[in-house]
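TICKET: design request
STATUS: open
ATTACHED STRUCTURE:
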């Protein structure tokens, strides 16, 4: 046998051994994978999967309706918050205006209190003598009318006291 024949046989033997080793490795890997993940539960049938899909679709519709309701409530709350903020702004401006009015009133009160606390100025009363003549007769006529009016007023006050 020649060297060439020997080499051919060695190459053929090596090739056969590598194929056998690969087959053994594949079987070992398949057994190892099967033992690591055993299939204990039977796969569900198509009808059950379709029923579960319908259930999930109904749940998705219900969740979408709830989400729409929550969105509507959020919009309502947003409007209420905006209205409350507007009211607070209006109240703040009213409070500011009223504070200014209160300050002015306090200043006027302080001024009036200072005027009342100050001693009254000395007053001089000037008496004029009554003029004689036609003007005095005019005053007397009117004076009598004034006294008549006072008499009527006194009667009115007495009637109110009786009632």
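STATUS: resolved
RESOLUTION: sequence designed for all positions
ATTACHED SEQUENCE:
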């Amino acid at each position: 046998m020649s060297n060439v024949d020997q080499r051919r046989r060695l190459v053929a033997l090596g090739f056969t051994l590598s194929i056998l080793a690969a087959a053994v490795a594949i079987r070992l890997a398949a057994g190892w994978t099967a033992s690591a993940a055993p299939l204990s539960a039977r796969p569900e049938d198509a009808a059950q999967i379709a029923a579960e899909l319908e259930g999930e679709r109904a749940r998705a519709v219900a969740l979408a309706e709830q989400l729409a309701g929550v969105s509507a409530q959020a919009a309502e709350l947003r409007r209420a918050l905006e209205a409350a903020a507007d009211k607070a702004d209006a109240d703040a401006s009213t409070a500011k205006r009223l504070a200014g009015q209160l300050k002015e009133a306090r200043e006027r009160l302080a001024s009036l209190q200072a005027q009342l606390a100050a001693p009254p100025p000395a007053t001089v009363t000037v008496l004029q003598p009554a003029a004689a003549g036609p003007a005095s007769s005019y005053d007397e006529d009117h004076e009598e009318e004034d006294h008549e009016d006072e008499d009527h007023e006194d009667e009115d006050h007495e009637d109110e006291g009786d009632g």
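CLOSING REMARK: The radius of gyration is 59 Å. The mean pLDDT is 82.
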